[in-house]
């Protein structure tokens, strides 16, 4: 009996260690993730709220950067069959790029500002194949992108880098430096009205993500990336 009791104690202890290693959900409301260095070691792994079988999807986030060159990656969702299953990047030409099932669509004329908060949403529907992007107060045209297949499989979701391999393998051209906040992913195409509320950023007025929810986020941070309080600073230079 003593041996059995000892065995159970050790087993529970090991189980506790395994459970404690699992990332816990945390509300990051009014917080940002800072990516302070141009290095492939900095990124954040996100864990969705449910299995991935999405016939439609919307991803919204806010970013703040001073990058003028390369193609920094804002959001990268990969699965074994497609390394760019749902991926958003900025391009050196100040375009927005959206990959769906490895297929690329480029959206022109959606301006963003350096050293300012920018809000961006991307939507896609597998039934029609149509994608659309919204940046600050401007919406794009709709474009067909990717095969008309749902997002399925076991995903790997990264902020701050783009997948070149399913389990890592990042490149310097896609490193993001700056702040990312308010990341939400939905299993539907948000309406323009819902996106307008998100862009306004008013507390409690926009729909939180059901697939990824910034207010109940499960994540693992790598490198020198870190969670910080969002800075709300306004400078007034009038004497």
Report on the structure:
- With 239 residues, the protein is mostly beta strands.
- It has a single domain, classed as Sandwich (Jelly Rolls).
- The chain has two helices and 19 strands.
- The strands form three sheets. Strands 2, 5, 10, 11, 12, 13, 16, 17 and 19 form a nine-stranded antiparallel beta sheet that branches.
- The radius of gyration is 19 Å and the shape is globular.
- The N and C termini lie far apart (81 Å).
Q: What level of helicity do the residues show? A: 10-25%
Q: Would you tell me which CATH topology applies?
A: Jelly Rolls
Order of helices and strands: HEEEEEEEEEEEEEEEEHEEE
Q: Any low-confidence stretches, pLDDT <50, length ≥5?
A: 1-21, 235-239
Total tally of structural domains: 1
Tally of contiguous helical segments: 2
Morphology call: globular
Q: What proportion strand? A: 35-45%
Class derived from helix and strand content: mainly beta
Corresponding CATH architecture: Sandwich
Ends apart, CA distance between termini: 81 Å
The main sheet comes to: 9 strands, antiparallel
Quickly name the level 1 CATH class: Mainly Beta
Number of strands: 19
Q: Average pLDDT across residues? A: 87
Rg over alpha carbons:
19 Å
């Amino acid at each position: 009996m003593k041996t059995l009791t000892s065995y159970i104690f050790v087993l529970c202890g090991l189980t506790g260690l395994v459970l404690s290693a699992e990332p816990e959900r945390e509300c990051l409301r009014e917080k940002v993730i800072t990516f302070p260095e141009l290095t492939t070691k900095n990124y954040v792994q996100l864990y969705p709220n449910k299995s991935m079988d999405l016939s439609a999807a919307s991803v919204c986030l806010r970013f703040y950067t001073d990058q003028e060159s390369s193609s920094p990656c804002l959001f990268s969702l990969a699965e074994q069959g497609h390394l760019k299953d749902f991926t958003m990047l900025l391009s050196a030409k100040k375009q927005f790029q959206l990959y769906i099932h490895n297929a690329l669509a480029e959206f022109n004329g959606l301006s963003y500002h350096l050293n300012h908060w920018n809000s961006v949403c991307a939507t896609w529907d597998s039934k029609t194949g149509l994608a659309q992007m919204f940046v600050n107060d401007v919406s794009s045209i709709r474009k067909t992108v990717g095969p008309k297949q749902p997002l399925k499989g076991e995903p790997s979701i990264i902020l701050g880098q783009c997948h070149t391999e399913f389990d890592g393998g990042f490149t310097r051209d896609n490193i993001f430096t700056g702040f990312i906040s308010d990341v939400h992913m939905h299993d539907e195409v948000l309406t323009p009205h819902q996106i307008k509320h998100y862009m306004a950023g008013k507390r409690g007025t926009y729909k939180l993500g059901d697939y990824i929810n910034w207010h109940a986020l499960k994540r693992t941070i790598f490198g020198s990336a870190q969670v910080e309080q969002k800075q709300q600073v306004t400078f007034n230079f009038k004497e």
